[in-house]
Amino acid sequence: MAEDREKWILSCAMFLGLGQAVYFSLKAQPSDVLLAVALLITLVGMWVSRHHVIPFFCCLMLFFALAGGGIVQVHLYILQGPVLKKTLYTDNLQGKILSLEPRNGRTRLMVAPDGIAGLSRDQWPQKVRLSLSGDIEARPGDYFAGKAKIFPLSVPETPGDPDFARNLYFDGIGATGFALGRSYRIDRDLTAETGFFERIEKIRLAIMEWINNGLEPARAGLANAILVGERGGVAPALAEDLRKSGLAHLLAISGLHMGLLCGVVFFTVRFGLALFPSVALRYPIKKWAAIAGFIVGAFYLLLSGATVPTQRAFVMTAIVLFAVLVDRRAISLRLVAIAAVIVMVLRPDAILGASFQLSFAAVTALVAFYQGKGGRLVSPQRDLPIWQRIGRYLFALFITGIMVTAVTAPIIGFHFGRISLLGVVSNLVAIPLMAFWIMPGIVAVLVLLPLGLEGIALGFLAPGLDVLIALAHLVGRQDWGVWHIAQPSALAVILSLLTLLWLVIWRQRVLWVFAIVPAVGAGIASLSAQSPDLLVGGDQKDWAFYRNQDDDLVFNDRVSGFHRDIWNARFGTGFVPEKREEMYCVQQRCWFKKNGKSIVISDKIDDPFYLCRHADVIVVLKQDFPVSACRGVKRMPLIIDDDVLWWQGGVTVFLGDQQVASRYVTVRQTSGNWPWIIIGGR
Length: 682
Known about the structure:
Blueprint: H1 8-25, H2 32-48, H3 53-78, E1 88-103, E2 106-116, E3 128-133, E4 143-151, H4 164-170, E5 175-187, H5 196-214, H6 217-228, H7 236-244, H8 255-274, H9 277-280, H10 285-303, H11 308-325, H12 333-346, H13 354-371, H14 386-416, E6 418-420, H15 423-448, H16 454-476, E7 482-484, H17 490-505, H18 516-528, E8 534-536, E9 543-546, E10 553-555, H19 561-571, E11 579-580, E12 585-586, E13 589-594, E14 597-602, H20 608-614, E15 617-620, E16 638-640, H21 642-648, E17 651-654, E18 663-666, H22 667-671
Parallel strand pairs: 3-5, 10-11, 14-15, 15-16
Antiparallel strand pairs: 1-2, 1-4, 2-3, 4-5, 6-7, 8-9, 8-17, 9-10, 12-13, 13-14, 17-18
Membrane topology: Multi-pass membrane protein
Transmembrane segments: 33-48, 54-79, 250-276, 288-308, 320-345, 351-372, 393-416, 428-449, 456-476, 482-503, 510-529
Protein name: Competence protein ComEC
């Protein structure tokens, strides 16, 4: 370990991310003093153990883990601001429009309010995200004014569901909602100065308009997703087929898009300059090409909305291009670690997102492989016939697909509940298509748009998009190619990834013994994980019961499609028509039997004494249950009523067996006391 100190930065990046993940798993923000004292103790430990490798390494890793938590703490202080506590109907919400996104027949606005009727000045959120029906004539910098219904940030519906509120909070958003009908107006302030980011947003919207006018809707939606990061125009059926075929990553601007775009610019500029011997022999045209690639990449970052995946992709690409400028090795695990640290410092909540995890898991595995034995597949091949070069390229692509699928499978299974088994095959076609057709077409669009010649570029781009759409539909219709799995334990996934990362970082097998601890922990966490039997949403409307028979979920007839898809993904039950509650319900009351226990679910009750004596679990969605009615019963039933759901949020119920009492866990218990968690107005 002492002789391989250059690998220490890789471990530091790993423990920095681990510290951030542990911080977010806490129930509340820790004390500043406690965190500072812990950091000071680790620094003292590093000084005392500076002559002993293993103790020093342990203190160093502990320091970076604590530093990860400290970075989150700093961000939370920076982001301090009002968040909406209760749902509000306001007669007048007005403010400056920061951005807008067309999304399937609606328009989403980001508004910086300077007036909200019904709230005092110190209660105005810094940003409010509003949804409006239809397309509107507006630009960043305009002013919105009108009636609206706004909500607190949406917490997880049940424990274990995705926490979208956290992402919105770190975006500076304190409330979401929608405009009421058409009772609003958009005003333009012609005297106001337009800021830099507002100009970029206007350019972004103008490009989307040109693309929408030049391509049919299916092509335009895909082109806008790839070029400006706007996925709202992608038809739901196409988006679903892209996910089922393992091509959904093409909709999120990430390392593939950024690398291909900057690569096309780099090689085009270098090739063009090499045509002039007087320039190529006197000047560093390779470095000039790297600068051109960096400029285009930075513009692409701004144009795409600077989302977290795009930021990560730009950081990695920029480091590669900088390495070209200083004549250093461009691609290495050190590059991956530096990029990860930069992203975690700038946006610490990204560590919990699927995009960050999938991107860095895939890139780390590929870089480690091609730095080792896989390097032969990408070694110089100038002496080989063209057909052998093509064969080696396709074989490398196939191996890459298998590796990426294997490494990212646990993460995809955890976040989405299904894995595309045909993704290797579909990417074998899609990636060359992106590299040699679609991304060059995107570059052509960016170059020719200012000249008014975008029609030529769009004509070249359109057939490539058609091939990609046809591929997604063809593979997506093969239902046997999608493997649905129940959501694994989060702790098991984290420990499994830590084990793999340790094995990748340290090549010496003598150090692999340290990986035994997280590997054993992952096994124990996986075996001890317990799936809930009943989910009851905090909206006091949606619920789902897992029967275990045929691995199906039973939903109530009012369940939203959004929650249905999330819960299907959790249980790995597939996305097929589900069994509805009618077959188990009579007069708005539903009875179920499982593990020898009776469960009743109802909006309201009028005979609590009967339920106390015949049910083991009682769920009353819209009424408080009189607990006194159960006095004298032999076995007190588990009661979940309006009081629990309103003040504690949604619940997951674990029935146990005849010898184990039933129990429930609430969103308040699992999500903790964070500023973005608002339940029952607090």
